[in-house]
């Protein structure tokens, strides 16, 4: 394994912290999203209603229990933990004149705890945590002022933790909002606070949002290195192979095009310019991207130092002739999880190869894991052999990418080392952790933490640096 290699996990504020209105935190977009299920999408409310369950309000109470949780990560031997700093804790309305000090103090305390255990803090600056005021008063990322406000927030955070944090991540998975693809309401909302069905001109609006977010990332990357030249800046992308349905050239082409939709922002952040092919595509649809002359310099100087890769599954291109079928065509060679996510370890090696060769940058695996139902069996143990199997097979492929294909990979972080609220469904029972949290979908439970079988397994993996899986 490449040295130093980060072993650890990733969590996000809105899925773990709870304490949604404590110590000056303002309301953020995910505070308005109800719990859904595998089959029923999460609903988004305009107001917070008292008799409705909003899982983000409670999370897993990481806000009060982070010491205990971090001690358990340290027991496993973690050398890194990726957390997000919630914008609405630092600027409750996003545009406040003064910083909310208790918000900064809270993250100081977490980061200090990590450093005590020699765990590298990796900070995501935007993991679906947008102050809701920026949606109502500014129209979210459609408005360039939100770019300025985000940059201001990042600057404050990067300065505050300058002596403690070296690894910064500008955004989580902004690349899923390709303007040319129809989106679901919940997905568009998680990333922007806006519902897809309420966009007045979806293609134009998503192109504007995508441009503004990309610009925000490059501006922050540039400033990060002005603040401290040691700062390492990445952006996290959700990327996966799209396999052609068969070897018909039309299907191969179609799969290629579908996969490319995820990449225009990666191209922009890694090459130092917004890609011409995307601008031409927009032009052909009569879309105007709000480019200002000074942006070119930001793109040039705001390139990434590393790419964060979230990998869960591979996809199968759906040929046109099946387009009106409700059920998606499945890849017959690949199993699926209970939530319909394919389990394809080779896909991680494929994706690592692809992005490393395309950009030549180091890769950090920022998320990988299996969402599953866990049973607490008699005697209180949780025997999650299926999770061990999933992770072992993926780590094996990460090793192959590094050793046989010469991909530079600087870390492997699982999602999520402790059970948290699911982002897409809001469920508690879709669990990923090595640590079980006693809470059910109704929010009932003691929140007690308990080691699963995978806990000791991952501890051993880290101890032998991935040699024995
Ligand atoms: C990623 C998100 C995470 C996380 C993960 C698993 O896309 O970055 O926030 O939640 O997906 O998704 P889910 O929780 O819906 O199973």
Automatic annotation (TrEMBL):
UniProt cross-references to Gene3D superfamilies, sorted A to Z: Glycosidases
Example of a GO biological process term: carbohydrate catabolic process
Alphabetical keyword list: Glycosidase, Hydrolase
GO molecular function, one term: beta-glucosidase activity
Pfam families: Glyco_hydro_1 (PF00232)
Domain of life: Bacteria
Cellular component aspect of the GO annotation: cytosol
Family: Belongs to the glycosyl hydrolase 1 family.
PANTHER family in UniProt: 6-PHOSPHO-BETA-GLUCOSIDASE ASCB-RELATED, GLYCOSYL HYDROLASE
Protein name in UniProt: Family 1 glycosylhydrolase
Organism name: Entomospira nematocerorum
């Amino acid at each position: 394994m490449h040295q130093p290699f980060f072993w650890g996990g990733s969590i996000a504020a809105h899925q773990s912290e709870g304490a949604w209105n404590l110590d000056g935190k303002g309301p953020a977009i995910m505070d308005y999203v109800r719990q859904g299920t595998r089959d029923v999408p999460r609903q988004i409310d305009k107001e917070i209603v008292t008799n409705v369950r909003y899982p983000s309000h409670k999370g897993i109470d990481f806000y009060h229990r982070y010491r205990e949780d971090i001690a358990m990560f340290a027991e496993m031997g973690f050398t890194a933990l990726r957390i997000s700093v919630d914008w609405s804790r630092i600027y409750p309305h996003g545009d406040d004149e003064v910083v909310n000090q208790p918000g900064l103090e809270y993250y100081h305390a977490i980061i200090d705890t990590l450093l005590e255990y020699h765990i590298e803090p990796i900070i995501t600056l935007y993991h679906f945590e947008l102050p809701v005021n920026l949606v109502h008063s500014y129209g979210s990322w459609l408005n360039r002022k939100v770019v300025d406000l985000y940059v201001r927030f990042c600057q404050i955070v990067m300065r505050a933790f300058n002596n403690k944090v070296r690894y910064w991540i500008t955004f989580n998975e902004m690349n899923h909002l390709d303007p040319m693809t129809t989106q679901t309401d919940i997905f568009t909302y998680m990333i922007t606070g806006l519902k897809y069905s309420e966009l007045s001109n979806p293609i134009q609006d998503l192109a504007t949002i995508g441009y503004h977010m990309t610009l925000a990332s490059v501006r922050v990357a540039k400033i990060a290195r002005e603040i401290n030249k040691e700062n390492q800046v990445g952006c996290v992308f959700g990327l996966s192979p799209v396999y052609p349905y068969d070897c018909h050239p039309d299907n191969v082409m179609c799969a290629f095009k579908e996969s490319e939709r995820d990449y225009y922002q990666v191209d922009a952040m890694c090459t130092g310019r917004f890609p011409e092919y995307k601008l031409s595509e927009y032009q052909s649809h009569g879309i105007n991207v709000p480019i200002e002359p000074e942006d070119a310099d930001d793109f040039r100087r705001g390139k990434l130092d590393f790419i964060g890769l979230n990998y869960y599954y591979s996809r199968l291109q759906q040929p046109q002739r099946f387009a009106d079928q409700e059920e998606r065509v499945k890849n017959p060679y690949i199993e699926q999880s209970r939530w319909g996510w394919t389990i394809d370890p080779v896909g991680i090696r494929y994706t690592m190869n692809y992005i490393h060769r395309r950009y030549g940058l180091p890769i950090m695996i920022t998320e990988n894991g299996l969402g599953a139902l866990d049973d607490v069996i008699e005697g209180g143990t949780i025997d999650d052999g299926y999770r061990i199997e999933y992770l072992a097979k993926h780590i094996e492929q990460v090793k192959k990418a590094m050793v046989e294909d010469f991909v530079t990979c600087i870390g492997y972080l699982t999602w999520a080392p402790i059970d948290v609220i699911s982002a897409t469904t809001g469920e508690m029972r879709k669990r990923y952790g090595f640590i079980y949290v006693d809470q059910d979908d109704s929010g009932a439970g003691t929140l007690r933490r308990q080691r699963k079988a995978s806990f000791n397994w991952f501890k051993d993996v880290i101890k032998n640096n991935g040699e024995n899986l």
